[in-house]
Amino acid sequence: MNATPEQTDAAIAGENEAYIAGVAAQLNDFLAEKHQLLAEISPATLVLIDSIKTLVTGGKRMRALLCYWGWRGAGGAADSTSIIAAGAALELFQAAALIHDDIIDRSDTRRGGPSVHKQFSTLHADQGWALDAERFGHAAAILTGDLCLSLSEEMFARVDQGSNPRARAVFNLMRTEVMAGQYLDILEEVAGPSKPHNTAVARASAIIRFKSAKYSSEHPLVLGGALAGAQESLLAGYSAFALPLGEAFQLRDDVLGVFGDPVQTGKPAGDDLREGKRTVLVGLTIDAAAEAEKEFVDKNLGRQDLTDAEVARLCAIMVESGALASTEAMIADLSETAFAALDTLPIEDFVSVALSALGRGAVSRTS
Amino acid sequence: MNATPEQTDAAIAGENEAYIAGVAAQLNDFLAEKHQLLAEISPATLVLIDSIKTLVTGGKRMRALLCYWGWRGAGGAADSTSIIAAGAALELFQAAALIHDDIIDRSDTRRGGPSVHKQFSTLHADQGWALDAERFGHAAAILTGDLCLSLSEEMFARVDQGSNPRARAVFNLMRTEVMAGQYLDILEEVAGPSKPHNTAVARASAIIRFKSAKYSSEHPLVLGGALAGAQESLLAGYSAFALPLGEAFQLRDDVLGVFGDPVQTGKPAGDDLREGKRTVLVGLTIDAAAEAEKEFVDKNLGRQDLTDAEVARLCAIMVESGALASTEAMIADLSETAFAALDTLPIEDFVSVALSALGRGAVSRTS
């Protein structure tokens, strides 16, 4: 007897919930172990683990869920402890990346609260310690991110990988690619303005591929499949779905970074513009805007002291040049490609439904 | 027939040389693989791997050698590829720690050349890129350190650990402890001045235990033993030797950081004083110096703009208060404890000779 769509949705929701709860419990137990260890070293170091804990408690767990459904699509069992550990490792890796990203971007907020380096500089100021509060904040956050990165790896080493080297290879590739992609991103911020305008979109596209689409979408899904021993053909199919999906996801993120509601995104309005992020949206704007507007964008993007009026003018240029509409069209195209690929995957229907729901949520979200 | 001391020394030198060459070749091949991967992502990212390569090419390889002799003492074979990979993983971890340390300490030089963040800020300035050169340098070096940390783990995952979880546990503990220790170190720089003078030595001793002695000495030796399947009693004996040895090593480092010859250490004179490192040497100085001198130390330590005359006065206070002599006495005591423990280890004579030579080199070095 076939399940009704409602029954399928309920079953998927149940699995999502159970898995997310499993990952949360795993992270909780693991960080409690580390809390104990740090308490023995010195109670003064507990702030490190506490700030990691806060960070991994929130979030959408999108990467972990992609990993889970990649595993399920390749025949992995719903109640495996190994896939829970893999999801927890991905969440810890993401937390580490966020901690260091926020230092690099000088973002003082994360999910509506203070970022890790800001927590430490506030601690410094509150305690009236010597020397510079901001410098202490950055230093402590570099170390916290390093610890978190190490914990991610420690968790991944707990995943049962049998004798199959494929999953480890994906995890390794993911890390190297995202760091290279992040470097391209900060390089574009400083070197982009002196490069040709007409290749800005291509450069921004390469950045989001490595920094975001492969890292946040393709690799987690492929990792889950590889852990379940999937054949290369299925893993290639996963990539054909998840890579364009991840690109659409990042384009959505870029749009939200400029036009999103700060209350929903947890990021102050104009933050991305003050950081000087050279996104595809910016590239399209520079491509399409009139000369005076182009110049205004090039001159003001990345200025930390942009006024609200200047932020509003930048936003208006993005709308009036048609760049926002073009970005939305790209999101639609990429989504179509992704979901067409999903339809051809040799996986059970309910896994396909679960991946489709996850994907549609990612590209049409508002936060 | 017993070997003569000369034959033993020659055999040890041969093993040291072969092992170091093996680690260097392993690192070379591994980084060539990663170079290829980054070239495919974008040639612009190759600077990341090049700066890592420069860093792991130098160095004393002390951690790797301790790991090797820990392995040999527990019956591991001289020609194992696994112990070479373990040594390479330790070297990559150390390189990652140095990259981030230099950002934290604002050290512009490393082994006589520019530190990684300085290389990137110079690249920025040379290319005439937009925005801030120093900020770009720090951001790029954070990412390079993260990449290097991930590569260390990737290398460690290649080590054959059989079904024995002990080596992985040591590697994990090493990473967490060193990061916690580094946090205590930066915390002491800012919070130390407002804490009681008479506990400064105890606080500094705790820092060097975790940040340095366990990380640089105890854990590498125990790791090698664990990889060879050593019993817990031998591993405990390794700790009894390597922990005081590591403490003596770090005290030597602190002395060299203030009194060492910049030509030999590769670090500018006064660097440690300008960084404000609250070492055991500083703690002993604050303990023993007269009131006016105490105040001078507290007020000036950590001032980035210390003049050469102020550096000289700080050095003189350390000598005249007897703090330098006390530190040397501590180095001698710790060394004695370490070598007494070494003598009782149930390991082959030539391994004992090798560890003794390695240890004596570490505590009496001049660079």
TrEMBL record, chains A, B:
Obligatory cofactor(s): Mg(2+)
Keywords from the UniProt entry: Magnesium, Metal-binding, Transferase
Gene3D superfamilies found in the cross-reference section: Farnesyl Diphosphate Synthase
Entry GO MF terms: metal ion binding; prenyltransferase activity
Record GO biological process: isoprenoid biosynthetic process
UniProt xrefs under CDD domains: Trans_IPPS_HT (cd00685)
SUPFAM superfamilies reported in the protein's UniProt record: Terpenoid synthases
Domain of life (superkingdom): Bacteria
Pfam families attached to this UniProt entry: polyprenyl_synt
InterPro entries (UniProt xref): Isoprenoid_synthase_dom_sf (IPR008949), Polyprenyl_synt (IPR000092), Polyprenyl_synt_CS (IPR033749)
Family: Belongs to the FPP/GGPP synthase family.
PANTHER family reported in the protein's UniProt record: GERANYLGERANYL PYROPHOSPHATE SYNTHASE (PTHR12001), SHORT CHAIN ISOPRENYL DIPHOSPHATE SYNTHASE (PTHR12001:SF85)
Protein name (record): Polyprenyl synthetase
